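To whoever is on call:

I kicked off a structure prediction for a single chain this morning and the downstream step that reads the tokens threw a length-mismatch warning. I double-checked the sequence; it's 290 residues and nothing unusual in it as far as I can see. Pasting both halves so you can look.
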Amino acid sequence: MATKAKPEKKIGITYWSKEKMICPVCKKLFPREIMRSGNGRMIAGGLTPELHRIFEPSAKYGRIYPLIYEIGCCPHCYTAFFWNDFTVKIPQEDNDRLFTHSQQRKSACEKIFPYFNLKKERTLFDGCAMYYLALMTYDDVNEEFIPTLKKAIISLRLAWLTNDLHHRCADHNYDLVSKMFYNKALFFYQQAVYNETDRKEKSSSLNNMGPDIDKNYGWDGVIYLCGLLEYKYGQQEDIQLRLKKLNESKTAIARIFGLGKSSKSKPGPLLEHARELYDNLSKLVKDDEF
């Protein structure tokens, strides 16, 4: 008699860690969802000019969004951080402020991402909500957390993720939400550079500046993204101010990447994108105008 074959056990995209996280604000435990690696889950595609890695859908798992698992969020008080920051000691003053603003974060998030769920396997929608909760959480911590650059990275990732959400449900205006987060990313990236220059915040000391999860492009990437975001999403009302900012971006990019010289000390995709941006800025800005 033939033995009946057992059905193959389906292994999902994520699993729940046995070790629970402790929220540093409300001190309650919550589980951590971790994305599995390997077995064709992440099929890397191209790199966009915004240094965003596109992952192609697989036949087995469909389209996945690795970015959404980089943020943790306490389902009790809606405090959201990059996972590493859950272990950082928070000053009591910041802790009190974060706890006081718990319901305020939840209510604000529900206006853009209604009915989000923090207690089940996260979807793209839930992942967007967690990033938005993180954006608000970092508003309430001190400069030791390097919050400005983290908010820049979060805002840019939110722009990408809400654009993905728009393609999944085109009738909910998430394309407009994506544009809003691009504008926030522009502001926070430029503010992070100002803070570094004025020594108000050690922006350049952040260990991983992303902006995506596949590669750390460091401070060079930050300078590049300041220029790119200004070029693509900067204000258009005051043309002279726009030209001034674009010219400053052009100068900063040339200085960082040594464009126009024979140096090959910074090869790779970032240099290629920087050169393309420099050429585009040069078409818009004439040096003798300033």
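Update from on-call: the warning came from a stale cache, not from the record. Cleared it. Sanity check on the structure: The first strand starts at residue 14 and ends at 16.
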